[in-house]
Amino acid sequence: MTDQLDRSDVAPDPGGPGATSSTGSSFGRYAARQLLRRFGQLVVLVVSISTLLFFLLRVTGDPALVLLGDLSTEEDLERVRSFYGLDRPLIVQYVLFVFQAIRLNFGRSLVSFEDALSMVLEKMPATIQLALAAVVLNLAVALVVGAWLGYRPERPERRAGLFAVLVSQGVPGFVIGLILIQIFAVELRLLPSIGRYGLASFILPAITLASFLLPRVIRLTAANVDDAMREDYVRTARASGATPTTVLFRHVMPNAVVGTIALVGVQFGFLLSGSLITETLFAWPGVGLQLIEAVRALDFPVVQATVAVVAVLVFAVQALVDILIPLADPRLRSQRA
Predict the structure, then answer these.
(1) What is the pLDDT of residue 246?
(2) pTM of this prediction?
């Protein structure tokens, strides 16, 4: 989980002339430290995963044999290996790969001979749009349902609601997707189930992808709301005559939403992984289908470029979450230098 500020280091707003400037500079230093830390993690992650993938893909099979087929002659295979540099020693291939990757050059696809990075960047917007739709759906449903389940824990329907959420957590996302397709696309013919054609085509894939994470987010939000309701400042607000709406939205939700934002941000990489199944199920034109085809064809450059781009995307989201957390919690908006 993304790091949070130590509450003992949070200074109250003194209200003096220099308060805003001091708070802003402190938050700026905090954001810079978080970005620097995340960037260091990104470098280590990309290097480690890329190295592991490089050697695993090389021992998985022979791309020349995949390209030419079983009836190809050994001379033909050698010409293809020589053309792509696959006949060189493995360590030499790795060194060349590292130097090229530093320059953001992952080579050309072994199948289409197009630039691998360009191929990934061309498909990535569709995957990002689907993941963002799932994130928005997760946050909207989790905050509403979680607030309802956690605001009054003594209600008998709360147990039934939490039990339903727990049961839904055990249902695989692709099963939910198949059920949605059968009901809304096949039986009722209300929504499209293949491809990306307008906003309506986002509904079923987004619900399917959101279901990978939604039960956990709801449970966390409900628990955070329940905990916040037990805090002294909430009891004081209720005793002073504050309306239930004021208590919920002014005192409870600003604290409960912090954990929800953090969980969704940290699990964004999980959503991208889940998108591989979702894109296959709905024939979504994103990197998921392209990655599966590249792995089948042992198209090394496309696989390596996909992993690098996804890692950078996850880094950007988690860095954004690190910055949003203190902004979402009023108690964490300032930090002593």
Answers:
(1) 82
(2) 0.76
